Amino acid sequence: MKAGFWQRLDLWARRLGPFLSALLLLLLGTIPLRLPYLGSITPDFAIMAVFFWAVHRPSSMPAPAVFLLGVISDVLGGTPFGVGVLVMLIAYWVTRSQRRLLIGQPFLVVWWGFGMVSAGALILTWLIVCLLAVQLVNPTPAVFAFFLGLALYPIVTQLFTGAQRLVDGRT
Amino acid sequence: MARNPRNVMRIASPVRAWTQRFTYVLLVGGAFALMMLGKTDAVLVERLRTHVTDALAPIMAAISQPVDAVERAVENAKHLIELRSQNAELVAERDALLQWQAVARKLEAENSQLRAMLGMVPDPQTTFVTAHVVGNSAGVFVREVLIAAGARDGILKGQAALTGDGLAGRITEVGDRSARVLLLTDINSRIPVLLESARHRAILAGDNSNEPRLLYLPPGAEPMPGDRIVTSGDGGVFPAGLPIGVIGTVEEGVVTVLPFVDWDRVEYLRIVNYELAGVIAADKPDGDTGGGDAR
Q1: Which of B64, B77, B203, B259 has the least CB density, counted as fewest CB within 10 Å?
Q2: Closest alpha carbon within chain B to A69
Q3: A85 touches chain B (CB under 8 A)
Q4: Residue B247, Cα to own-chain centre: how many angstroms?
Q5: What is the pLDDT of residues B163-205, one digit of tens each?
Q6: Given B24, B135, B208, which is nearest A30 (Cβ)?
Q7: DSSP-derived 3-state class of residue A103
C-alpha cells in the first residue's frame, strides 16, 4: 500500500513537473528586479516554457495546461484578459506543427526556432493590445523584451533540461 | 494494448488526433470567450484577478525577499564608497534647507493666521500607509505593480501611490492583503494635473513609455520645458499639490512630462489616505473617480 502511494506520487510529479516548472518561472518573472534600464521590462517566461515543452515533450504540456498557464499569466501580468491565452495557444500549435524540424537539431536551430515563435507571439500580442486599447501602444518595450527573452532562453533551457532529467531519471 | 498493438493504433491514432484538434479548437474558443468577458464584465474579471493575486501575494513576497537583500547589499556597498563625498554634500544641503525651514515656518504661521482671519474650511487630514512592492507586471504592455497591503490595511480603490520622489500611480484593485497600483505611465492612466506656476489645468495621460503626455491643456497655455506638474486635486480623490514631474519636451502640441519617480527602483510605495475620498465614494458607488478606465 505504501509503495503504491509513493509510486502514484512519483507518477503525478512526473506528469505535473513541466507544468509546475513553467508556473514557477512565471512567478519568478513577476519579481520586481529594479535593474537599471530593465526595471520595467520582463521577458515572457511563459512562452519559453510552452515552446520548450512543445518541442521536447509535448505529451507533458497538453493544450489545456497551456490554456491554464495563459490564464495565470494574464492574471499576474495584467495584460487584457484572454490575450495571453490566445497567443500562447497559437504559439503552442505552431511549435507543435513544426516540431519535426526542430527535434534532434543542434541547439542553435532550436534557439532560432524560439526566436521566430516568440517574435510572432509578441507581434500578435502587440496587435491585439492595440486593437483592444484602440490606440497605438508603444512597441519599444516589446522589442527589448524580445531580445532579453532570446538571451535568457539558453539559461532557461538548462533549467528545463535539468527538470526533464529529474523527471525522466527513474524510468 | 499488448495483444495487437498495430490494430489498436490504427483505430486509436485518428481518434486521438481528432480529439486533440477538437480540444484545441475548444480552447481557442475559450480564449476568445475570456477576451469578450474581459471587455464586457470588467468587475468579474477584476474580482478573479484580485482573488488570485491575493492568494499568490505571500509567495511573491517570500521570493522577492532574497532579491531585495542582494539589492540592499549592493546599495550599501555603493554608499560606503561614496560616503565621504556624500557627507559633504549633505552638510551643504542641510545648511541650505535650514534656511528654507525658517522661511517655511514663518510662512506657515502667517498662512494659518490669514486662514483663520478668512474663516476658511481646513483641508481634510491625510494619512499614509507604506507598502512593499512585491510584484512587477509584465511591463511590456502594462505598467502596474503589486503591493503587499490591501483592504485590511485600509487601502481603498483610487488612492494615490507615492514614492519619496513623487506620484507613482493610483490603486486600481484591492484585495484583502494585496493591491494593484496602475502606474501613471500606463496607457489607461489619466490623472488631473496642474502646471504649478501657470495654474493651468490638464490631464496627464500615460502611453506605456516613461514619458506620459499632457492632454486638454487650455488654449493659450504655453508650457515650457522644466515647468513643474502637480496633482490638481480635481475629482477629490488625490490631494492637491502632490509632485509629479517636470515638462520634458514641447513639440507640435505634444507635451511630454518627465516624472520624478525613478521607475527602476520603486521598492516601497506610500499610499495616501485622503479623507475626502470617503465623502465622494459615498456618492459614486464604484469609487473610481480618479479618472481612467475601471479595469
Answers
A1: B77
A2: B31
A3: yes
A4: 20
A5: 888 899 999 888 888 898 999 888 888 899 988 888 888 999 9
A6: B135
A7: coil
What size, in residues, is chain B?
295
Asked if residue B4 has pLDDT above 70, the reply is: no
Containing B276, the helix (H) or strand (E) segment is helix B276-283
Check if A67 contacts B (Cβ < 8 Å): yes
Identify which of A34, A67, A133 has the shortest CB distance to residue B267.
A34
CA nearest B132: which of B267, B257, B232? B267
Q: Please, are residues B139 and B114 in contact by the beta-carbon 8 Å criterion?
A: no
pLDDT range class, residue A120, cuts 50, 70, 90: very high
Question: Inter-chain contact B39–A135, Cβ cutoff 8 Å?
Answer: no
Q: Nearest CA to B132 among A30, A36, A76, A32?
A: A32
Alpha helices in B41-82 (DSSP H): 42-81
Q: Rounded distance, CA B129 to CA B155, Å?
A: 8
Mutate to test the interface with B, among A138, A144, A147 (most CBs of B within 10 A): A138
Using the beta-carbon criterion (under 8 Å), do A39 and B263 form an inter-chain contact? yes
Which domain covers residue A9, as residue numbers? 5-168
What chain B residue is nearest to A33 in terms of C-alpha separation?
A: B67
Neighbours of B86 (CB within 10 A): 11
B15 touches chain A (CB under 8 A): no
The C-alpha atoms of residue B232 and residue A58 are separated, in whole angstroms, by 55
pLDDT band at B294 (very low <50, low <70, confident <90, very high): very low
Q: Say whether A33 and B67 touch across the interface (CB within 8 A).
A: yes
Which pLDDT value is given to residue A38?
54
Q: Do A142 and B141 touch (CB under 8 A)?
A: yes
- Give A28-51 pLDDT, tens digit per residue: 777 766 555 555 567 778 888 889
ipTM of the prediction greater than 0.85, yes or no: no
**Comparing C-alpha atoms, which of A76, A119, B46 is closest to residue A84?**
A76
Q: Say how many domains are in chain A.
A: 1
Percentage of chain B with pLDDT > 70? 85
Q: Report the CATH number at residue A131.
A: 1.10.1760
Burial class (CB in 10 A: 0-12, 13-18, 19+), B23: middle
**Axis crossing angle, helix A2-28 with helix B42-81, rounded to the nearest 10:** 70
Exposed / middle / buried, residue B254 (Cβ in 10 Å: 0-12, 13-18, 19+): exposed
